[in-house]
Amino acid sequence: MSHASHETDAPAILAEVNPAVLPRPALVEHDRSYSWITEKICGIVEGKTPTWWWVCFIVACFIASFTVVGLTYLVSTGVGVWGHRSPVNWGWPIVNFVFWIGIGHAGTLISAILCLLRQKWRTSINRGAEAMTIFAVVCAGIFPVFHIGRVWYAWFLFPLPNSNYIWQNFRSPLEWDVFAVSTYGTVSVLFWYVGMIPDLATLRDRFEAAGRKTRSFFYGIMAMGWRGSARAWNNYEMAYLILAGISTPLVLSVHTIVSFDFAVSLIPGWHTTIFPPYFVAGAIFSGFGMVLTLMLPLRAIYKLEDLITQYHIDCMCKITLATGTMVGYAYAMEFFIAWYGANPFEGFAFINRAFGPYAWAYWIMISCNVITPQLFWFKRVRQNITLVWVLSLFVNLGMWFERFVIICTSLSRDFLPSSWGYFSPTAIDIFTFFGTFGVFSVLFLLFVRFLPLMAMAEIKAVTPQADPHSEHHG
Amino acid sequence: MADQPYGLIATFDNTGALYRAAEKVRDAGYRQWDCITPLPVHGLDRAMGQKRSIVPRISLCGGITGFCTGMSLIWYTDAFDYPVIVGGKPFFSPLFAFPVSYELTILFTAFATIIGMFVLNGLPMHYHPVLKYRDIRRGTDDLFFIVIEAVDPRFNAAETRDLLARIGGRNVEELET
């Protein structure tokens, strides 16, 4: 009934009240035209390879060689060359796995969840963030595959018929993880590729016009004959929306299942129900840290300030702040429950985390993950691009330490003091992990050089002149 | 058939002009025609009289297949073909089979969606007459086009050309097949 009376009142009120018009922040500054956007983004691919690119590429290849050498040594010698041994059998490889997979999550968040929430600012950064996701999953995959010891048996992880007849144990969260991560990698690649088809067609047509046949052929194959037909766009937009719709539960499930690797066990400090949401928040937090780390230098190098505006940086900082605060809350809640749950082993695990032999790692984690993001409350901090970049590095560092703390403190001191130990990585551990940053950078540099860095068609669609009902026709 | 053109193409400068023109082509009763746009134009599907895409139905089939694949794979391997006692847990339960089935639901939905979209759009397409038009490359850059095909029953070289010019199209030209 009250609803009906509101309806009758509404016109009278509307006549008196003048609703405030809140200006929406421009997503593309300086009122750029379509062709300016095309020129800007295709220019990155079409231009001559810049010197900085070669320098970075060579350095990245050099760093990546550490992983190659480390893994070669490992395979030819045995997993004993890594530092994990009883009681810490999960050591750095699993820390690195969770670290890299977490980084990937921001890419999917930006491309999928923000798409569903109609956050149009995602358009400038989603392509780069999705690329980051895929390359992070590549780096993540290296560790569990080599951690199994005999890498040539890695296919045992998948239910393929073999002469042993025995099948995988689907009661184990580790097997769930195989499916979660491989689905995640596959769907991320598909999503990224489908999003790129219209832009690849743009590149194909431009190379064709410039008479560069080989390049045109190459992009033509990848664009699959896309010609911007409105009937095709209709199916395409629907397919993209569905991919966004399924990637959202996917990204939430992947880190949930990664956290099950821990939460389903009985180890004190792992066996907690808070793990799934806490891992997901942490993953998005670390991923946004990495997006900022990557996109801010690219924005400066390629002068993309009109496309990645201060508003975009503000949004990313605020998500980092929100997820960082959730992570901080989870740390506090873990401690509270350890006390409130009155389980002496659980209580000890947390006291040991904060004040035991790994206290140094714990406090690095707290200062990077809880204190650093709080600085993003201040507009001055968000507007200082250099400072934002430095803070994003701290976020990355802190999230690596979070996984280290969770894995190493719990495993090194579980139930029986007689089986306690202290984990130290070996030089091979350190080099192999260090090298993955090179692997990641090599892939990312190739992406920047050869593929459209931003979703041109989508950026054009969020400019004012794209609205067929506006009078704004540039 | 050699003389028969593929159709007529007209150029438009912005989304507003294209949108209004599309409505008029639709109202003139044409069925075999298309717009070429460098970006997805909001609402153009309705202006063209297009139906809702059927991609979601294909996705749903993919999703159901994926879920059933997951559940039956786990039942077959762990409870039927070679049951092994692990930790005293049941050989099959939908609860522990759920995470894997969930992931396979998503995986199969993704493939179904993309393959469905490709098939409906006729991709990969090796050749299309529109791609021969000299200005077509701007259709993936900053210009908009309307193409009316000669196979449309209402197509008449003179009348259709006249319509395209009247609704604001520039450079109305014939496309070779």
Structure description:
The complex is a heterodimer of chains A (474) and B (177). Chain A has 474 residues and is mainly alpha-helical. Helix content of chain A is 70%, strand content 0%. Chain A contains 16 helices and no strands. In chain A, helix 3 (51-77) runs antiparallel to helix 15 (427-450) and helix 5 (126-147) packs across helix 6. Chain A is globular, with a radius of gyration of 25 Å. Chain B is an alpha+beta fold. Chains A and B meet through helix 2, helix 6, helix 8 and helix 16 of A and helix 1, strand 2, helix 2, helix 3 and helix 4 of B.
Highlighted features:
heterodimer; A: 474 residues; mainly alpha; Formate dehydrogenase/DMSO reductase fold; disordered N terminus; B: 177 residues; alpha+beta; Alpha-Beta Plaits; 2 domains; 4-stranded antiparallel sheet; 5 helices; 12% strand
Oligomer: heterodimer
Give the strand tally of chain A.
0
Class based on secondary structure composition and strand pairing of chain A: mainly alpha
Largest sheet descriptor of chain A: none
